[in-house]
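Run log, item B.
One chain of 397 residues. Sequence copied directly from the ordering sheet:
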Amino acid sequence: MVVLQLRFLLVPLLTSIMGAAQYVMQDAALMNYIDRRFLSLEQRLEKCNQDILDYVEEFRDFSKMVLSRLAGLNNYKAEVKNEVENLLTRIERAQRDIDYFGSVTDSNTCIEVHEDLVKQQLFEEAEEKKKLKLMLNASCDHMLAGIKSLKIVKKTGDKHGSWMKDPGKKHAKIYLLNGSVNNVIFEFANIMTFMESNHTLKARRVTLPFPWEGTGHIIYQGFLFYHRYGSLNEIIKFNIQKRTITDQMLLPGAGRIPAYQLSPSTKIDLAIDEQGLWAIYAEPETGGNIVITKINHITMAVEHTWDTSCNSKDAEAAFIACNTLYVVYNFPSGGTSRIQCVYDVLDAVNTYEIPVLHFPKRQGSHSTIHYNPKEKQLFAWGDGSQIIYKLHTKQKV
């Protein structure tokens, strides 16, 4: 009887223990599941945080790039505005040139010539000569009679280059432009500073926005006038002190062939004389003969153009003095340079009676020769040497 009672007591107890164990196992499984889910959520949150950090860093880099691009765009906007303004100016000049060429074409139409028209033409030509004499100051009456002496000031730089003073200024500064393609000007306080051995340390460097082409540049009244590299016939007027481009122009007909056969890098040679700024170049239509154009250095407008009888074959350089073009010739292999073609725009010089003028005491070639009207001297660059030639002049016949 007692055993039976114990059985009845043990069965519910065992049943309750087994039920409790089952609940414990279920709770453990539930806790394990919850732990795994929390671990998964933590991993996802960690990845999310890392992605956010990556996105923030990427956004910062992108913001920096955008801000730098915006700054560049602002600069580019200013450059484009300047280019557009320059382009409009050049379009206006081109339109004037087109109108001029149109009038010339119309005037060359083949018509029956009447005696009154011939008289009118002769009268207009006489009036044109009067205007030219007035424009070019006919009181400039001296001409080159000989080259007295030379002085080799220094030997520095490449085979090709140019050096000069500014005849339109009172200062004694010397400017050196090395090479046939470059964009750096060296400015020296005076010729003594230039002659020192370590001259570049004492020079003021001026960097141009666009490089030059050839060696035909010139400095006048504080401005550098030069042929822009890569362009056919664009001449730039650059303010040396302010380091800014002041004006530009296109020179009609120029830039297609070298101005001088022996200096092929120079397509446009700019020159200064007592009357101001000139351009010297050659044209295929003239058989390679040299053409000279008077340019107003203030407005950068063409004032007049002359076709000369001087050929560019075997020519190495040229210069203009007192309205007269002097072309320097040499041999392709180098030798004694000589002036054997002269052209006076006012017909004040009998070019057929001028003897050949030889450059003294030197064998070689010149890459540039510039006349300084203030000092009545030639500043030349010959095979890397900077040379000054003193001149002997006489009255024009």
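Observations after the first pass:
- The domain at 142-395 is CATH 2.120.10 (Neuraminidase).
- The chain has two domains: 1-103, 142-395.
Flagged for discussion on Thursday.
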